[in-house]
Amino acid sequence: MVFKNEWERIYRNNLQLSRWPWSSLVSLVNRHCDIREGMKVLELGCGAGANIPFFVSLKSDYHAIEVSQTTVASLKSEYRDNASVDVKQGDFTDDISIFGPNFDLIFDRGALTLNSTEGIERVLKQVYKTLKPGGIYIGVDWLSTSHSARKQDKAERIGDNTYIFSTGYFKDIGQVHFFAENDLRELFAEYEFIYLVEKLNDIKIPIPQQYNLWDFVVRKHAE
Questions:
Q1: Which 3 state secondary structure label does DSSP give 89?
Q2: Considering its fold, how many domains does the chain have in total?
Q3: C-beta of residue 128 within 8 angstroms of C-beta of residue 106
Q4: 160, part of any domain
Q5: Is residue 39 in some structural domain?
Q6: Which of 34, 95, 127, 172 has a CA between 20 and 30 Å from the CA of residue 114?
Q7: How many angstroms separate the CA atoms of 122 and 93, rounded?
């Protein structure tokens, strides 16, 4: 991941501090995961920790990696008395082997989509090794190539479907990657797709735009 300092700036300035679990993620976990006490979970890019209370409620063995030192320090303090919550500071595109193998579930909500093609491919190779056979990966709110920002907002194209925006919603958050359906199918060719939906959000107010996103669930084949 590049632009690591952008996310440190965002959280240090108390921006994007989502505190409620994302409803799409809650629904997909309940629908597709074998939920049980001690389920081993890894979140890539946990941000301010919005999803942690949900996994605490499931009595999961929760792990996360987040690039911002500020938000990691805050989460470590908040959950210092909860041994089932482990949050580490780092770049998930570099190395997630520090968490060990055999995860039941690995997921991200809008985190991998803010990377280059090379960074996304690199972390997904590690994800495959880190998931146990039959393990689940859930992606929530990955940006679609039909998202109107690609046409409406000013941006520099720095790679295949990857941009740095100077105007609009994605300004000042670093690189942003958009996906077509074929891109997702190629990235997860070694998995079984069990859920794939493109959410077509036709926003009218405050700014008219097509805010289109992917949600998906894939399963690593059992050995």
A1: strand
A2: 1
A3: no
A4: no
A5: yes
A6: 34
A7: 6
